[in-house]
Automatic annotation (TrEMBL):
The chain crosses the membrane at residues 12-30, 140-161. Its EC number is 2.7.13.3. SUPFAM superfamilies: ATPase domain of HSP90 chaperone/DNA topoisomerase II/histidine kinase, Homodimeric domain of signal transducing histidine kinase. One of its GO terms (biological process) is cellular response to phosphate starvation. This is histidine kinase. The lineage of its organism: Bacteria, Pseudomonadati, Bacteroidota, Flavobacteriia, Flavobacteriales. Keywords: Kinase, Membrane, Phosphoprotein, Transferase, Transmembrane, Transmembrane helix, Two-component regulatory system. Residues 228-427 form the Histidine kinase domain. It comes from Epilithonimonas hispanica. One of its GO terms (molecular function) is phosphorelay sensor kinase activity. It comes from the Bacteria.
Protein backbone atom coordinates (compact mmCIF):
# COMPACT_ATOMS: atom_id res chain seq x y z
CA UNK A 1 0.00 0.00 0.00
CA UNK A 2 1.15 3.50 -0.83
CA UNK A 3 1.14 6.41 1.64
CA UNK A 4 -1.34 9.22 1.06
CA UNK A 5 1.44 11.70 0.26
CA UNK A 6 2.70 9.70 -2.74
CA UNK A 7 -0.83 9.35 -4.10
CA UNK A 8 -1.33 13.12 -4.06
CA UNK A 9 2.18 14.06 -5.23
CA UNK A 10 2.44 11.68 -8.19
CA UNK A 11 -0.51 13.16 -10.18
CA UNK A 12 0.85 16.64 -9.48
CA UNK A 13 4.29 15.75 -10.86
CA UNK A 14 2.76 14.10 -13.94
CA UNK A 15 0.60 17.15 -14.55
CA UNK A 16 3.58 19.54 -14.25
CA UNK A 17 5.65 17.30 -16.55
CA UNK A 18 2.92 17.35 -19.21
CA UNK A 19 2.73 21.15 -18.99
CA UNK A 20 6.53 21.30 -19.32
CA UNK A 21 6.51 19.13 -22.46
CA UNK A 22 3.75 21.25 -23.98
CA UNK A 23 5.45 24.51 -22.98
CA UNK A 24 8.68 23.86 -24.95
CA UNK A 25 7.09 23.88 -28.45
CA UNK A 26 4.73 26.63 -27.27
CA UNK A 27 7.76 28.73 -26.25
CA UNK A 28 9.31 28.09 -29.62
CA UNK A 29 6.24 29.13 -31.62
CA UNK A 30 5.51 32.22 -29.51
CA UNK A 31 9.13 33.48 -29.36
CA UNK A 32 9.68 32.72 -33.04
CA UNK A 33 6.54 34.66 -33.99
CA UNK A 34 7.54 37.62 -31.80
CA UNK A 35 11.06 37.50 -33.20
CA UNK A 36 9.80 37.56 -36.82
CA UNK A 37 7.43 40.41 -36.05
CA UNK A 38 10.23 42.47 -34.49
CA UNK A 39 12.52 41.75 -37.47
CA UNK A 40 9.79 42.81 -39.90
CA UNK A 41 9.42 46.10 -38.03
CA UNK A 42 13.19 46.51 -37.98
CA UNK A 43 13.50 45.89 -41.75
CA UNK A 44 10.67 48.31 -42.50
CA UNK A 45 12.27 51.02 -40.33
CA UNK A 46 15.63 50.53 -42.11
CA UNK A 47 13.90 50.86 -45.48
CA UNK A 48 12.10 54.06 -44.46
CA UNK A 49 15.21 55.53 -42.82
CA UNK A 50 17.36 54.76 -45.86
CA UNK A 51 14.82 56.37 -48.16
CA UNK A 52 14.58 59.46 -45.97
CA UNK A 53 18.35 59.89 -45.62
CA UNK A 54 19.09 59.51 -49.36
CA UNK A 55 16.27 61.86 -50.34
CA UNK A 56 17.48 64.42 -47.83
CA UNK A 57 20.80 64.66 -49.73
CA UNK A 58 18.99 66.00 -52.84
CA UNK A 59 21.38 64.23 -55.20
CA UNK A 60 21.46 64.47 -58.95
CA UNK A 61 20.74 61.37 -60.98
CA UNK A 62 24.43 60.63 -61.47
CA UNK A 63 25.22 61.14 -57.79
CA UNK A 64 22.16 59.06 -56.86
CA UNK A 65 23.39 56.12 -58.98
CA UNK A 66 26.86 56.39 -57.41
CA UNK A 67 25.34 56.56 -53.92
CA UNK A 68 23.16 53.51 -54.56
CA UNK A 69 26.18 51.60 -55.87
CA UNK A 70 28.20 52.64 -52.83
CA UNK A 71 25.34 51.68 -50.52
CA UNK A 72 25.07 48.23 -52.07
CA UNK A 73 28.83 47.72 -51.66
CA UNK A 74 29.07 48.74 -48.03
CA UNK A 75 25.73 47.23 -46.89
CA UNK A 76 25.85 43.52 -47.81
CA UNK A 77 22.53 42.87 -46.07
CA UNK A 78 20.64 45.44 -48.16
CA UNK A 79 20.24 46.04 -51.84
CA UNK A 80 18.73 48.89 -53.88
CA UNK A 81 18.12 48.28 -57.53
CA UNK A 82 16.03 49.59 -60.36
CA UNK A 83 12.71 48.01 -61.11
CA UNK A 84 12.51 45.21 -63.59
CA UNK A 85 9.95 45.25 -66.34
CA UNK A 86 7.81 42.50 -64.76
CA UNK A 87 7.91 43.98 -61.23
CA UNK A 88 4.43 43.98 -59.66
CA UNK A 89 5.29 46.93 -57.36
CA UNK A 90 4.14 45.00 -54.27
CA UNK A 91 5.95 44.62 -50.96
CA UNK A 92 6.74 41.09 -49.77
CA UNK A 93 8.14 39.40 -46.67
CA UNK A 94 9.78 35.98 -46.88
CA UNK A 95 12.46 33.71 -45.40
CA UNK A 96 15.51 32.37 -47.21
CA UNK A 97 18.10 29.85 -46.06
CA UNK A 98 21.67 30.30 -47.28
CA UNK A 99 25.24 30.68 -45.98
CA UNK A 100 26.55 34.09 -44.98
CA UNK A 101 28.15 35.96 -47.88
CA UNK A 102 30.98 37.39 -45.74
CA UNK A 103 31.76 34.44 -43.41
CA UNK A 104 34.25 31.63 -44.05
CA UNK A 105 32.14 28.67 -42.79
CA UNK A 106 29.35 27.32 -44.93
CA UNK A 107 26.68 26.75 -42.28
CA UNK A 108 23.18 27.46 -43.52
CA UNK A 109 21.34 30.26 -41.70
CA UNK A 110 17.82 31.63 -41.92
CA UNK A 111 17.20 35.19 -43.03
CA UNK A 112 14.06 37.26 -42.68
CA UNK A 113 13.74 39.31 -45.87
CA UNK A 114 11.77 42.42 -46.86
CA UNK A 115 11.34 43.46 -50.46
CA UNK A 116 9.81 46.94 -50.55
CA UNK A 117 9.20 49.69 -53.12
CA UNK A 118 10.89 52.96 -52.16
CA UNK A 119 10.98 56.26 -53.99
CA UNK A 120 14.31 58.07 -54.49
CA UNK A 121 14.09 61.42 -56.25
CA UNK A 122 10.47 60.47 -56.89
CA UNK A 123 11.45 57.38 -58.85
CA UNK A 124 10.55 53.83 -57.72
CA UNK A 125 13.34 51.44 -56.67
CA UNK A 126 13.25 47.92 -55.27
CA UNK A 127 14.74 47.88 -51.75
CA UNK A 128 15.75 44.44 -50.39
CA UNK A 129 16.94 43.82 -46.84
CA UNK A 130 17.67 40.57 -45.05
CA UNK A 131 18.29 39.96 -41.33
CA UNK A 132 19.60 36.77 -39.77
CA UNK A 133 17.00 35.10 -37.49
CA UNK A 134 18.97 32.00 -36.55
CA UNK A 135 19.43 33.39 -33.04
CA UNK A 136 15.78 32.62 -32.24
CA UNK A 137 16.51 28.87 -32.14
CA UNK A 138 19.37 29.46 -29.70
CA UNK A 139 17.03 31.57 -27.59
CA UNK A 140 14.45 28.79 -27.56
CA UNK A 141 17.14 26.27 -26.57
CA UNK A 142 18.28 28.32 -23.59
CA UNK A 143 14.69 29.04 -22.56
CA UNK A 144 13.94 25.30 -22.66
CA UNK A 145 17.03 24.46 -20.60
CA UNK A 146 16.14 27.15 -18.09
CA UNK A 147 12.56 25.85 -17.90
CA UNK A 148 13.73 22.29 -17.26
CA UNK A 149 16.11 23.44 -14.52
CA UNK A 150 13.37 25.50 -12.91
CA UNK A 151 10.99 22.51 -13.17
CA UNK A 152 13.49 20.28 -11.36
CA UNK A 153 14.04 22.90 -8.67
CA UNK A 154 10.29 23.51 -8.19
CA UNK A 155 9.32 19.83 -8.10
CA UNK A 156 12.28 18.87 -5.91
CA UNK A 157 11.54 21.73 -3.54
CA UNK A 158 7.84 20.83 -3.40
CA UNK A 159 8.65 17.19 -2.65
CA UNK A 160 10.95 18.15 0.22
CA UNK A 161 8.48 20.77 1.45
CA UNK A 162 5.57 18.32 1.21
CA UNK A 163 7.41 15.69 3.23
CA UNK A 164 8.34 18.16 5.94
CA UNK A 165 4.88 19.69 6.06
CA UNK A 166 3.22 16.26 6.09
CA UNK A 167 5.13 15.32 9.24
CA UNK A 168 3.76 18.34 11.08
CA UNK A 169 0.31 18.49 9.44
CA UNK A 170 -0.37 14.76 9.81
CA UNK A 171 1.16 14.49 13.29
CA UNK A 172 -2.26 14.65 15.07
CA UNK A 173 -3.55 11.88 12.79
CA UNK A 174 -0.50 9.74 13.56
CA UNK A 175 -1.03 10.30 17.29
CA UNK A 176 -4.66 9.23 16.95
CA UNK A 177 -3.65 6.14 14.98
CA UNK A 178 -1.03 5.14 17.56
CA UNK A 179 -3.56 5.43 20.39
CA UNK A 180 -6.06 3.31 18.47
CA UNK A 181 -3.42 0.61 17.90
CA UNK A 182 -2.79 0.32 21.63
CA UNK A 183 -6.49 0.37 22.57
CA UNK A 184 -7.71 -2.84 24.24
CA UNK A 185 -11.43 -3.37 24.67
CA UNK A 186 -10.85 -5.74 27.58
CA UNK A 187 -9.34 -2.92 29.64
CA UNK A 188 -12.41 -0.76 28.96
CA UNK A 189 -10.40 2.45 29.19
CA UNK A 190 -11.38 5.51 27.21
CA UNK A 191 -8.86 7.17 24.90
CA UNK A 192 -8.12 10.84 25.46
CA UNK A 193 -7.31 12.34 22.06
CA UNK A 194 -5.20 15.50 21.90
CA UNK A 195 -6.84 18.68 20.66
CA UNK A 196 -5.78 19.86 17.19
CA UNK A 197 -6.09 23.07 15.21
CA UNK A 198 -7.35 21.15 12.14
CA UNK A 199 -11.13 20.89 12.05
CA UNK A 200 -11.16 17.59 10.13
CA UNK A 201 -8.85 15.86 12.62
CA UNK A 202 -10.77 17.30 15.55
CA UNK A 203 -14.04 16.01 14.07
CA UNK A 204 -12.42 12.59 13.51
CA UNK A 205 -11.26 12.41 17.14
CA UNK A 206 -14.72 13.33 18.41
CA UNK A 207 -16.35 10.66 16.24
CA UNK A 208 -13.82 8.05 17.40
CA UNK A 209 -14.39 8.95 21.05
CA UNK A 210 -18.15 8.44 20.65
CA UNK A 211 -17.60 5.17 18.80
CA UNK A 212 -15.25 3.84 21.49
CA UNK A 213 -17.69 4.80 24.25
CA UNK A 214 -20.48 2.94 22.43
CA UNK A 215 -18.29 -0.12 21.93
CA UNK A 216 -17.29 -0.18 25.60
CA UNK A 217 -20.95 0.09 26.60
CA UNK A 218 -21.97 -2.72 24.23
CA UNK A 219 -19.03 -4.84 25.41
CA UNK A 220 -20.03 -4.40 29.07
CA UNK A 221 -23.64 -5.29 28.27
CA UNK A 222 -22.62 -8.36 26.31
CA UNK A 223 -20.21 -9.48 29.00
CA UNK A 224 -22.88 -9.07 31.67
CA UNK A 225 -25.30 -11.05 29.55
CA UNK A 226 -22.75 -13.84 29.13
CA UNK A 227 -22.11 -14.01 32.86
CA UNK A 228 -25.82 -13.85 33.73
CA UNK A 229 -26.74 -16.45 31.14
CA UNK A 230 -24.04 -18.74 32.50
CA UNK A 231 -25.67 -18.71 35.94
CA UNK A 232 -29.35 -18.29 35.11
CA UNK A 233 -29.54 -20.97 32.42
CA UNK A 234 -27.32 -23.56 34.04
CA UNK A 235 -29.30 -23.60 37.29
CA UNK A 236 -32.73 -24.55 35.82
CA UNK A 237 -31.07 -27.03 33.45
CA UNK A 238 -29.32 -28.69 36.40
CA UNK A 239 -32.58 -28.82 38.35
CA UNK A 240 -34.44 -30.37 35.42
CA UNK A 241 -31.72 -32.97 34.92
CA UNK A 242 -31.73 -33.82 38.61
CA UNK A 243 -35.52 -34.25 38.58
CA UNK A 244 -35.29 -36.50 35.52
CA UNK A 245 -32.61 -38.62 37.17
CA UNK A 246 -34.93 -39.09 40.18
CA UNK A 247 -37.82 -39.91 37.84
CA UNK A 248 -35.76 -42.49 35.96
CA UNK A 249 -35.06 -44.26 39.27
CA UNK A 250 -38.77 -44.60 39.98
CA UNK A 251 -39.77 -48.27 39.90
CA UNK A 252 -43.39 -47.48 39.05
CA UNK A 253 -42.56 -46.17 35.55
CA UNK A 254 -43.81 -48.17 32.63
CA UNK A 255 -41.45 -49.07 29.79
CA UNK A 256 -42.93 -46.41 27.57
CA UNK A 257 -42.71 -43.74 30.26
CA UNK A 258 -39.11 -44.74 30.94
CA UNK A 259 -38.20 -44.35 27.24
CA UNK A 260 -39.83 -40.90 27.12
CA UNK A 261 -37.99 -39.79 30.23
CA UNK A 262 -34.69 -41.17 28.87
CA UNK A 263 -35.14 -39.24 25.61
CA UNK A 264 -35.88 -36.09 27.62
CA UNK A 265 -32.75 -36.69 29.67
CA UNK A 266 -30.57 -37.03 26.55
CA UNK A 267 -32.08 -33.90 25.00
CA UNK A 268 -31.56 -31.99 28.24
CA UNK A 269 -27.93 -33.14 28.49
CA UNK A 270 -27.32 -32.00 24.92
CA UNK A 271 -28.99 -28.64 25.63
CA UNK A 272 -26.73 -28.18 28.61
CA UNK A 273 -23.63 -28.92 26.51
CA UNK A 274 -24.79 -26.54 23.77
CA UNK A 275 -25.41 -23.83 26.37
CA UNK A 276 -21.94 -24.27 27.83
CA UNK A 277 -20.32 -24.25 24.39
CA UNK A 278 -22.20 -21.14 23.25
CA UNK A 279 -21.19 -19.37 26.43
CA UNK A 280 -17.60 -20.46 25.84
CA UNK A 281 -17.70 -19.08 22.28
CA UNK A 282 -19.08 -15.78 23.58
CA UNK A 283 -16.30 -15.55 26.16
CA UNK A 284 -13.68 -16.29 23.47
CA UNK A 285 -15.17 -13.60 21.21
CA UNK A 286 -15.05 -11.16 24.12
CA UNK A 287 -11.40 -12.09 24.78
CA UNK A 288 -12.05 -12.91 28.42
CA UNK A 289 -9.13 -15.35 28.71
CA UNK A 290 -5.55 -14.56 29.70
CA UNK A 291 -2.60 -16.30 28.04
CA UNK A 292 0.42 -17.82 29.74
CA UNK A 293 3.11 -20.40 29.06
CA UNK A 294 1.76 -23.96 28.72
CA UNK A 295 3.55 -27.32 28.72
CA UNK A 296 1.52 -28.71 25.85
CA UNK A 297 3.00 -32.24 26.00
CA UNK A 298 1.96 -32.64 29.65
CA UNK A 299 -1.52 -31.30 28.95
CA UNK A 300 -1.94 -33.67 26.00
CA UNK A 301 -0.83 -36.71 28.03
CA UNK A 302 -3.36 -35.82 30.74
CA UNK A 303 -6.17 -35.61 28.19
CA UNK A 304 -5.13 -38.95 26.68
CA UNK A 305 -5.45 -40.63 30.10
CA UNK A 306 -8.91 -39.11 30.70
CA UNK A 307 -10.16 -40.16 27.24
CA UNK A 308 -8.71 -43.69 27.41
CA UNK A 309 -12.13 -45.13 28.23
CA UNK A 310 -13.56 -43.70 25.00
CA UNK A 311 -10.84 -45.39 22.95
CA UNK A 312 -11.55 -48.73 24.61
CA UNK A 313 -15.32 -48.51 24.05
CA UNK A 314 -14.83 -48.57 20.25
CA UNK A 315 -11.68 -50.70 20.35
CA UNK A 316 -9.70 -47.94 18.58
CA UNK A 317 -6.01 -48.41 17.96
CA UNK A 318 -4.20 -45.27 19.18
CA UNK A 319 -0.67 -44.33 18.14
CA UNK A 320 1.13 -41.31 19.59
CA UNK A 321 4.22 -39.34 18.58
CA UNK A 322 4.55 -36.73 21.32
CA UNK A 323 7.72 -34.64 21.64
CA UNK A 324 8.95 -33.69 25.09
CA UNK A 325 9.06 -30.21 26.60
CA UNK A 326 6.75 -28.53 24.07
CA UNK A 327 6.03 -25.03 25.39
CA UNK A 328 3.47 -22.65 23.83
CA UNK A 329 1.81 -19.39 24.78
CA UNK A 330 -1.93 -19.66 25.33
CA UNK A 331 -4.74 -20.17 27.82
CA UNK A 332 -4.51 -23.53 29.55
CA UNK A 333 -8.28 -23.98 29.85
CA UNK A 334 -8.94 -23.18 26.18
CA UNK A 335 -6.03 -25.33 25.06
CA UNK A 336 -7.42 -28.29 27.02
CA UNK A 337 -10.81 -27.75 25.34
CA UNK A 338 -9.08 -27.66 21.92
CA UNK A 339 -7.24 -30.95 22.59
CA UNK A 340 -10.34 -32.71 23.91
CA UNK A 341 -12.58 -31.49 21.09
CA UNK A 342 -10.17 -32.64 18.37
CA UNK A 343 -9.65 -36.07 19.96
CA UNK A 344 -13.37 -36.57 20.75
CA UNK A 345 -14.21 -35.51 17.18
CA UNK A 346 -11.77 -38.16 15.90
CA UNK A 347 -13.27 -40.83 18.21
CA UNK A 348 -16.83 -39.91 17.24
CA UNK A 349 -16.07 -40.21 13.50
CA UNK A 350 -13.89 -43.32 13.69
CA UNK A 351 -15.57 -46.68 13.13
CA UNK A 352 -15.19 -49.60 15.55
CA UNK A 353 -11.72 -51.17 15.34
CA UNK A 354 -10.46 -48.04 13.57
CA UNK A 355 -7.22 -46.16 14.20
CA UNK A 356 -6.17 -42.73 15.46
CA UNK A 357 -2.74 -41.09 15.27
CA UNK A 358 -1.85 -38.18 17.58
CA UNK A 359 1.34 -36.24 16.87
CA UNK A 360 2.89 -33.30 18.71
CA UNK A 361 6.05 -31.42 17.71
CA UNK A 362 7.48 -28.04 18.63
CA UNK A 363 5.50 -26.37 15.83
CA UNK A 364 2.45 -28.56 15.18
CA UNK A 365 -0.29 -30.58 16.88
CA UNK A 366 -1.97 -33.15 14.64
CA UNK A 367 -4.88 -35.58 15.09
CA UNK A 368 -5.74 -38.05 12.31
CA UNK A 369 -8.33 -40.83 12.19
CA UNK A 370 -9.28 -43.44 9.62
CA UNK A 371 -12.10 -42.61 7.21
CA UNK A 372 -13.53 -43.34 3.79
CA UNK A 373 -14.54 -39.99 2.31
CA UNK A 374 -13.24 -36.42 2.46
CA UNK A 375 -15.33 -33.92 4.48
CA UNK A 376 -16.67 -30.64 3.10
CA UNK A 377 -14.00 -28.08 4.04
CA UNK A 378 -16.38 -25.13 3.51
CA UNK A 379 -18.80 -26.35 6.22
CA UNK A 380 -16.30 -28.08 8.47
CA UNK A 381 -15.76 -25.25 10.99
CA UNK A 382 -19.23 -23.70 10.80
CA UNK A 383 -21.46 -23.86 13.85
CA UNK A 384 -24.00 -26.71 14.05
CA UNK A 385 -22.62 -28.39 10.90
CA UNK A 386 -22.91 -32.21 11.04
CA UNK A 387 -21.10 -34.89 9.10
CA UNK A 388 -22.50 -38.01 10.73
CA UNK A 389 -25.76 -39.39 12.19
CA UNK A 390 -24.36 -39.13 15.69
CA UNK A 391 -26.53 -36.71 17.68
CA UNK A 392 -24.50 -36.82 20.87
CA UNK A 393 -22.34 -33.89 19.82
CA UNK A 394 -23.38 -30.26 20.04
CA UNK A 395 -22.27 -29.33 16.53
CA UNK A 396 -19.98 -26.68 17.98
CA UNK A 397 -16.79 -28.63 18.67
CA UNK A 398 -14.79 -27.70 15.58
CA UNK A 399 -16.18 -24.13 15.59
CA UNK A 400 -14.84 -23.76 19.14
CA UNK A 401 -11.49 -25.21 18.05
CA UNK A 402 -11.21 -22.64 15.27
CA UNK A 403 -12.10 -19.74 17.59
CA UNK A 404 -9.54 -20.91 20.14
CA UNK A 405 -6.87 -21.04 17.43
CA UNK A 406 -7.73 -17.49 16.35
CA UNK A 407 -7.61 -16.18 19.91
CA UNK A 408 -4.14 -17.74 20.46
CA UNK A 409 -2.75 -16.83 17.00
CA UNK A 410 -2.67 -20.45 15.84
CA UNK A 411 -4.00 -21.84 12.55
CA UNK A 412 -5.95 -25.05 12.01
CA UNK A 413 -6.08 -26.96 8.74
CA UNK A 414 -7.91 -30.05 7.47
CA UNK A 415 -6.85 -32.48 4.76
CA UNK A 416 -7.72 -36.03 3.66
CA UNK A 417 -4.78 -38.29 2.81
CA UNK A 418 -4.48 -42.08 2.47
CA UNK A 419 -8.03 -42.62 3.83
CA UNK A 420 -7.27 -40.51 6.91
CA UNK A 421 -8.92 -37.33 8.16
CA UNK A 422 -6.10 -35.09 9.40
CA UNK A 423 -6.61 -31.98 11.55
CA UNK A 424 -3.37 -30.06 12.12
CA UNK A 425 -2.83 -27.00 14.35
CA UNK A 426 0.17 -24.78 13.55
CA UNK A 427 1.48 -23.52 16.88
Amino acid sequence: MKPLLSKTTKPFIIYVLIILVISIPAYYLVVDAIWKHELDEHNDIVARKTTSQINSLKLTEEKLIETIQLWNDVQPSTNIRKLEKNDNLKDSIFIVEKPHDFLDFEDIDRFRCLSKIIYLNQKPYRFNIETNIEESQETIFFISVTTVILFILIVGGLLVLNRRLSKSVWKPFRNTLDKLKTFNLNQQTKIEFSKTDVSEFDELNQSLSKLIEQNISVYKTQKEFTENASHELQTPLAILKNKLDILLQNQDLTEKQYQIAEEMNRALSRSSRINKNLLLLAKIDNKQFENSEIHLDELLNQSMEILQEHFEQKNISVKTEISDNVKVNGNIGLTEVLINNLILNAIRHTSINGSILIRLSQSEFEVSNSGTEKLNSDLLFKRFSRFSKDNNGSGLGLAIVQEICKSQNWTIDYRFENNNHIFSVKL
